[in-house]
Amino acid sequence: MKSLFALLPILAELYGLILLCLGIGYGSNRFLPTKTAAWLAQGLFWVGTPLTAFSFIVTTPMRQFSGLAPLLAWLGMGIGVGLAWLWLQQYPAQTRQGQGSFLLATMVGNTGFIGFPITWRLLGQDYFSWALFFDLMGTLLISYSAGIGVAASFGDRSISISKLLWHIGRNPTLWCVGIGLLLRQHPLPAIAQQGLLTLAWLMVITGLIYMGICLGEVRLKLQWQWIIPCLTIKMLLVPLLLGVGLT
Predict the structure, then answer these.
(1) What residue segments make up the domains of the chain, in order of their start?
(2) Residue range 83-99, pLDDT digits in tens
(3) Closest alpha carbon to 123 in 132, 110, 136
(4) Taking a C-beta distance cutoff of 8 angstroms, is the pair 36, 213 a contact?
């Protein structure tokens, strides 16, 4: 109980920062040019996310067995998509696009922009490699490979295997992850590492602001009949099954 109370100020600081960034994006949406979200999305895709991945990989100390984190991510997403498929057998969506969206929502979930600062602040840099490998080598790879395949399979237009591989292979983040893993063998000077970390955290903050802008643009029509089972699978059943198995 004492340790829980000790965490409350840290959690308040973390969620305060996240909500502040989201609030800045949400509140500024009405004053920004209409294409701001699109520009930010392109910037984060081609520069921000690849730079963040590269910076964290080359500067984060590796912990023992942290390479197991991607396996846990893949296992969790496999359980998620399996449970989603079982749900759709009983309660099928009206369209193939709806089925694909539900499968994707339960299978993938790249939360690096939110999860990175929380993990870093709670556990410190020593154990950050677990979260880093879980996200970059686990959820990110699945999002940009199997996720694209599911989206193509359930879309309204067919896509060839070669075009599918092109969309996966052209992703700059995947290339930066590979380059970062290769360059880890050659430590950078301290000033270069600090500069990369500063840029990475600026990109994380930019990503949170971008999420706020998107929330300000979207007029949500909440479909609770799909939201509740999706959240139940992702946030209750998958962690429960993984936790029991790991125990």
Answers:
(1) 35-246
(2) 999 999 998 888 888 88
(3) 132
(4) yes
